[in-house]
């Protein structure tokens, strides 16, 4: 029987694969990034294959790394379950939830303490992603996705999210004069959220504005990043009120013009078909479906 690689190397690889980052893996494992990098290099040498592509910023799994990461993650989860079931006393039920990073940071995270107070017996493990990737079902119970809802899973529930509004920094609005218009805002600089390129055109069509599609001065791959860019003082963007809520409440950003449009697609709570629908998943689903975003 071929001898397995050292378990510490496998742990380092598993953490780095989940985070797509040696630094984040090091934080999880209480190691230095250099130690994680060294353990993965030893694993690659042992296996005779490159598991990660080293990029200018971060790392990405190679095809063979992706193929190795999924069964390895499942093996670790099975070992954890076996250990907990046999050797631990009564403990919290764990629910593993994956979400788009904007929904997780701006909508879900601020509400999780309220969920904990109502359901202290359930522990939430929250994972985030910007775009769907191939490693979507590695131990995840529920997934919060943005799209049309036309996925193969049987259990899909829509989540209601507020319409998108034009938001900007108050200083940016002031710099454009007292007679502020949406045309002037759009012409002064737009942060474009990737995947929402048609939003300004839809807004113009809805209100009969006959407004040219604005040229963006910067793109962001999520609403979370777009909001942070706007909070630095320049530009405007179309962002859901559900996402911009905290910024608007604190005055970090304002919605200076009375225009809004529904988001092009919706958010959905999805249960993987090969995942057992546990009582804690049902509790979380019922709670999330009744929340006002």
Descriptive keywords:
five-stranded mixed beta sheet; alpha/beta; 293 residues
Question: What does this entry look like structurally?
Answer:
This protein has 293 residues and is of the alpha/beta class. It has helices spanning 7-19, 22-29, 33-47, 63-87, 101-108, 112-118, 170-175, 182-187, 199-207, 223-231, 241-250, 279-290, and strands spanning 52-54, 59-61, 93-100, 122-129, 142-147, 155-159, 164-168, 190-193, 216-220, 236-240, 260-261, 266-271. Helix content is 44%, strand content 20%. A 5-stranded mixed beta sheet has the order 4-3-5-12-6. Strands 10-7-11 form a 3-stranded antiparallel beta sheet, with helices on both faces. Helix 9 links the parallel strand 8 (190-193) and strand 9. The chain is globular and about 75 Å long.
The computed structural class is: alpha/beta
Overall pLDDT metric: 90
Q: Supply Rg.
A: 22 Å
**Percent helix:** 40-55%
Anisotropy-based shape: globular
**What is the strand tally?**
12
The main pleated sheet reads as: 5 strands, mixed
| H/E topology pattern | HHHEEHEHHEEEEHHEHEHEHEEH
How far from one another are the termini? 54 Å
Which regions contain 5 or more consecutive residues with pLDDT less than 50? none
Separate helix tally: 12
Give the strand content. 15-25%
Strand order of the largest sheet: 4-3-5-12-6
């Amino acid at each position: 029987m071929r001898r397995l690689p050292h378990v510490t190397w496998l742990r380092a690889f598993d953490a780095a694969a989940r985070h797509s980052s040696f630094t984040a893996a090091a934080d999880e494992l209480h190691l230095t990034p250099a130690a994680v990098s060294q353990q993965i290099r030893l694993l690659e040498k042992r296996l005779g294959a490159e598991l990660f592509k080293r990029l200018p910023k971060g790392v990405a799994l190679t095809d063979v790394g992706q193929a190795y990461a999924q069964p390895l993650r499942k093996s670790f989860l099975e070992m954890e379950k076996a250990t907990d079931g046999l050797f631990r006393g009564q403990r919290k039920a764990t629910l593993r939830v994956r979400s788009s990073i904007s929904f997780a940071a701006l909508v879900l995270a601020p509400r999780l303490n309220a969920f904990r107070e109502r359901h202290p017996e359930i522990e939430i493990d929250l994972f985030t992603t910007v775009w769907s990737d191939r490693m979507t079902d590695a131990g995840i119970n529920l997934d919060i996705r943005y799209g049309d809802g036309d996925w193969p899973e049987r259990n899909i529930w829509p989540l209601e999210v507020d319409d998108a509004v034009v938001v900007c920094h108050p200083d940016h609005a002031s710099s454009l004069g007292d007679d502020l218009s949406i045309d002037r805002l759009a012409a002064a600089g737009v942060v474009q959220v990737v995947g929402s390129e048609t939003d300004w055109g839809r807004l113009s069509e809805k209100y009969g504005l006959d407004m040219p599609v604005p040229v963006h001065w910067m793109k962001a791959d999520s609403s979370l990043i777009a909001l942070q860019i706007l909070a630095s003082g320049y530009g405007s963007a179309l962002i859901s009120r559900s996402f911009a809520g905290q910024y608007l409440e604190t005055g970090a950003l304002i919605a200076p013009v009375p225009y809004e449009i529904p988001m092009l697609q919706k958010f959905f709570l999805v249960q993987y078909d090969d995942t057992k629908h546990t009582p804690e998943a049902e509790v979380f689903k019922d709670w999330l479906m009744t929340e006002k975003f």
